[in-house]
Write a structure and sequence with these properties.
By secondary structure, the protein is α/β, with parallel strands linked by helices. The chain is built from 14 helices and 17 strands. Helix 7 crosses helix 12 and helix 10 crosses helix 13.
Length: about 375
């Protein structure tokens, strides 16, 4: 059986790439197909594999300008020939679902998210564009949206990375999907009695992460905040930061674990499809203060209908005042959070759980194809 793994690009080491890394470990002989890649940013288990890229990878400044080539994605995808493969596993948004595969191949899509720019944030993106750019965006969007919808109909099976994404897959693509949460390595988590007085946030410093809210709230509330990560918003965030805010940049895993284990709480202000960092924080027994929307509703336990203890606190709006209110509520109830209970909750998202569920799902999909 010939297996192909498909991912839109390897230009960063984020949550999607971690998923591909684990999937690749399940299929060590699989070949990899992608639109763009940089050798140094391949996940460890993909190094040494056969990597096939699209023609776009040879375009000028492709790594920096890959988002600007979006109208060409369908054309580039059609140029990827996977007709020799029996099993295709796509870990991406829908545009790469349109690869050329043979008729009796089994194609399983692990959907991280319907691309926000073309779907749920489509109108918002238009509203913030100059007139000419808006016209180009709309023309490209009309084509890409039709392509993505049609490509998703060709999938044999669809997996969503959360119930939140499953709802969006149904809304935009009219496809039912199973939910398998992304893999999070919770085995390195440990409990540390040596607690410090800082709050912690971890991730790429991008606008969508809403770190500006966290910085401003900790400024106004006079609380220490440590920020791990780098990104385009760093200069802006530093301009907002007061004396209690510390930027740590890239941090090695061992040091990151110590930061997780000793923080008062992890703060998360993004509207994420899943959100790996809050789960990592909980694996060290630390509570999470999160924006109560999207994937956080599934990874952080608050007001559980079965009466199980909370593992964090939600704030209702992406505003500084709402987050400050959540920080105040947390500090009033801080002693009520049980680190051992929080750590146990994180284990339901462990890599082992993902591997077992993914293996079973793909095996069942292949069996159905044999008996069809």
């Amino acid at each position: 059986m010939k297996v192909a793994i498909i991912h839109p690009w390897f230009l960063m080491l984020g949550g999607g790439e971690k998923v591909v890394d684990v999937i690749a470990s399940l299929y060590p002989e699989a070949d990899i197909f992608t639109l763009f890649f940089k050798q140094e940013l391949l996940p460890p288990k993909l190094r040494g594999r056969k990597i096939t890229t699209s023609i776009l990878n040879s375009f000028p400044f492709s790594a920096k300008l890959h988002f600007h080539y979006a109208p060409l994605y369908p054309w580039a995808t059609e140029g990827l020939d996977l007709s020799a493969y029996d099993l295709l596993i796509s870990s991406c948004g829908p545009v790469l679902m349109g690869v050329n595969a043979k008729q009796d191949a089994v194609h399983v899509c692990y959907c991280h998210t319907p691309p926000r720019a073309w779907w749920d944030l489509y109108a918002e993106h238009q509203a913030n564009m100059p007139w000419l750019a808006k016209q180009v965006f709309v023309m490209a969007g009309t084509f890409v949206r039709m392509w993505e919808f049609n490509a998703m109909q060709r999938m044999d099976h669809v997996i969503s990375n959360s119930h939140y994404i499953a709802h969006r897959v149904q809304k935009y693509f009219r496809r039912d999907s199973s939910v398998i949460y992304p893999p999070v390595d919770t085995s390195n988590g440990y409990l540390d009695d040596d607690r410090s007085d800082y709050y912690l946030t971890v991730g790429r410093l991008g606008r969508q992460k809403r770190l500006d809210l966290i910085v401003q709230a900790c400024n106004a509330f006079g609380r220490k905040l440590k920020i791990v990560g780098t990104g385009k918003e760093e200069a802006h965030l530093r301009s907002l930061a007061g004396p209690t805010i510390e930027f740590l940049g890239y941090v090695p895993d061992a040091e990151l674990g110590r930061l997780y284990a000793r923080c008062r709480a992890f703060v998360f202000a993004a509207n994420e499809d899943f959100g790996i960092a809050p789960v990592e924080a909980q694996s060290f027994g630390r509570p999470v203060i999160a924006y109560g929307h999207g994937g956080s509703l599934e990874t952080v336990r608050v007001n559980d209908p079965e009466g199980r203890p909370d593992t964090g606190i939600f704030f209702a709006e992406q505003t500084v005042d709402s987050l400050i209110n959540a920080l105040m509520r947390f500090e009033q109830a801080e002693d009520q959070f049980d680190p051992a209970v929080i750590q146990e909750h994180a284990k339901r998202f462990d890599t082992g759980t993902f591997v077992a569920a993914m293996t079973k799902f793909v095996d069942n999909a292949r069996q159905k194809a044999v008996h069809a």
